[in-house]
Amino acid sequence: MYSACALITVFALAGSGLTDYCYRGAAGDAESFTITGQPTWAPRSVEARVRPVGGAAGSMGIVLHYQDSANLYLFLYGTGSTALRIYRKTAGTYTLLGSTPLVIPMGEAHTMRAATDGSGLLGLYWDDVLRLSVSDTTFDAGRIGLRVWNMTADFDDVLALGADGSPLFADDFDDGNAGGWSAGSGWTVVAQSGSPMPQPVFDTSFEGGNVQVTLVDPPTWTVHVTPELKGTSPYRAWFYFRMSNLSPAQPTNMVFQDVAFFTRPYYSYDNVNWTVFPAPPGNMYSVTFTQDLVWIAHSIPYTTSHEQQLIDDVQGPHVQTSVLATSEGGRPVHRLTITEPDGLTGKQGVWLVARQHAWEASGSWVADGLARWLASSDPQAISLRAKAVVNLVAIMDVDNVVLGGSGKDQAPIDFNRDWRATPHWNAVRETISGIDAFAATESYDLFIDAHCPGSASTFLYVQPESMVSPQYWLRFEEFRQILASTAGSGPLPYNGQYSELGPSYHPLWNQISLWHQYVVHSELELSLGLETQTSSRSGYQSLAEGIGRAFDDFLPDETTDVEDLAGAVAVSGAALMSPQPTPFRTATALDIVLPQSAMVRLTVHDALGRQVRTLVEEIRPAGSSPAAWDGRNDSGFPAAGGVYFLRLHTASRDATAKVTLLR
Questions:
Q1: What is each CA distance from 507 to 135, 232, 495, 519, in whole angstroms?
Q2: Residue 595 and residue 610: Cα distance in Å, rounded?
Q3: Per-residue pLDDT tens over the stretch 589-623
Q4: How far from 636 is each of 614, 630, 633, CA to CA, in Å?
Q5: Are 216 and 223 in contact (CB under 8 A)?
Q6: Which of the listed ranges 535-539, 575-579, 653-657 does the model predict with the highest average pLDDT?
Q7: DSSP assignment, residue 563?
Q8: pLDDT higher than 70, residue 298
Q9: Nearest residue to 306 via CA among 274, 272, 332, 265
Q10: What is the distance between the alpha carbons of residues 38 and 470, in angstroms, rounded to a whole number?
Q11: Which of 238, 469, 543, 582 has the most CB atoms around its CB within 10 Å?
């Protein structure tokens, strides 16, 4: 052994800990270098403050006399070997020159110095104490650098001294950059422990805000969060918070703990435009935010402000807004009624409710999108308004939406288990009363309850096939196939999936909305649950438009009896009667009604307008004559299930009828 002064005159480093900024290296199985200096440098020492951040079986160290990545000296501390070591690397192969045991806690900062006397004597100092020395004369000059392997480590206050003991190079990284360094992958300048220490600031002081922070590690910019239990629900399902004082120069590492029904979360810089987090390799989401303030949420939030904006945006002759109920907290539960302003009589009734579970914001976005589409000038929206009265309730559990609670299985009873003779919740009771009052005077045909379980796909809930009539199940099959054709593409598709509700689903399954409405209103065509996966706003809008088109295709157009039609054709020309049955599996029939003998052509087209089959191409007599379709195409093969259009063409008039084929 030899004395420290034989190697180098010690330069004391200012301060006793890491301060302001440091240079962080992060590497996996492949070592990563960052290099600076000139090939002719012959420093007597290179030192740095070092701190292991993560990696139980890796190493961090200082590079001396760097020729290239295959030829160098390496002075390191190994977290796996728990030892200080000096290596020579030649032609890409490491040779161990010396080793001495050392154990330091993860996260603890120390000073490491690599030194040489210029005559082949190499020394490794730890906190100004010589811990290891070896002899080797392979390299006598070269660049300097830092190196990590299979771990993350912080380096600060790098100082290189020349042969005369004067500073050759120094970098404390407090300017926030690593200018002059040539780095491999995984190197970045970060804020770190010391004074001052930037830390993220969390805020939930807004409607729907919710988060509980369980860990903040500023040096690694790692944050662990979980939803706070709000209200009386036992589920930690909803989080929505604002995080500021971020460091745009480094990744923010986030772990979302104990989140029920968890899917990839969303973030936004303006609380308007949202982006889904990139998929992580494990449970830690790492994002380099480009701004110092960001909103983060389970899914894109939908608050009462969004609902009010919807109400303001869709005002017009087609839309009526009313307060359907007042919540226990004194807040309004709004109902939008959308139809052509020519009265309600003779029209079919549709109800869609959403957000019985407050955390399921997707359901509100679907209701919002459907309302906007219905109020538009889209031809099918006009068609649906002309034949139906559509009632929308975008937020049922408004109190938990404002509070930021999940609402699921809350005390004394879940909203969607409260559809019974004497409901507890004002919103459920008044929604049932509102539906009953509507159904007492108008046609009530379709009920949809919109949810968002965080599932991997969008699907429908329906009553068990064994507990409904064959006719009801046929109508469900028809609607399911129609919806798959109108909403089967786009960013949030429905591909025909469904699940049956029943005793195995929940002990109170018969108090769930879709079963209650099915039992109480026997006139209903369908009563279904819509389970929507999380998506973007454009995804929700796309699905909502598909749902609206499915409503229009599913609900029959106004029809006229043959006797009434026969008296009108003399004035109006040729006509088609509605096919019967529809939906059908094997064959459907219809009548062609003509005021006089004429050449007619009757064809079948799919939902995209493509011709599938020619049924009739001949002269037909005046009056009514039959036609039929067996569900096959012109080649004789069975056509796919879905909505089809039968088109009649004559010299004086065209006519169209709609039919649904089930497979």
A1: 78, 20, 29, 17
A2: 29
A3: 999 988 877 778 899 988 777 889 999 988 888 88
A4: 11, 10, 5
A5: yes
A6: 535-539
A7: H
A8: yes
A9: 272
A10: 85
A11: 238
Q: What is the CATH number of domain 201-297?
A: 2.60.40.3120
Question: What's phi and psi for 58, nearest 5 deg?
Answer: -125, -160
For residues 480 and 488, give the distance between their C-alpha atoms in angstroms, rounded to a whole number: 11
Q: CA nearest 311: which of 398, 371, 374?
A: 371
> Which pLDDT score, from 0 to 100, does residue 652 have?
66
Phi, psi of 590 (to 5 degrees): -155, 165
pTM attached to this predicted model: 0.63
Measured torsion, CA atoms of residues 38, 44, 50, 52, in degrees rounded to the nearest 10: 90
* Buried b or exposed e, range 199-220, using 16+ CB within 10 angstroms: ebebebeeebbbbbeeeeebbb
Residues sharing a CB contact under 8 Å with residue 551, sequence separation 6 or more, in sequence order = 350, 384, 388, 390, 446
Structure-model confidence comparison of residues 568 and 549, the more confident one: 549
**3-state SS, one letter per residue, for 387-433:** HEEEEEECCCCHHHHHHCCCCCCCCCCCHHHCCCCCCCCHHHHHHHH
620: its two tokens? 């037909």
Return the minimum-mean-pLDDT range out of 102-111, 153-162, 214-223, 415-424: 214-223
317-372 residue pLDDT tens: 999 999 999 999 999 999 999 999 887 788 999 999 999 999 999 999 999 999 99
* CATH level 3 topology of 562-661: Immunoglobulin-like (2.60.40)
Contact 401, 210 (CB under 8 A): no
Per-domain residue ranges for the chain?
4-191, 201-297, 318-554, 562-661
CATH code of the domain occupying 318-554: 3.40.630.10
> 4-191 with 562-661: one CATH topology?
no
| CATH architecture for residues 4-191 | Sandwich (2.60)
Residue pointed to by tokens 């109006």: 572
Q: Indicate the Cα dihedral angle 573, 574, 577, 579, nearest 10°.
A: -150
Residue 17 has pLDDT above 60, yes or no: no
pLDDT band at 567 (very low <50, low <70, confident <90, very high): very low
- Residue carrying structure tokens 């772990």: 255
Q: List pLDDT tens digits, range 436-472.
A: 998 998 889 999 999 987 667 899 999 999 999 888 9
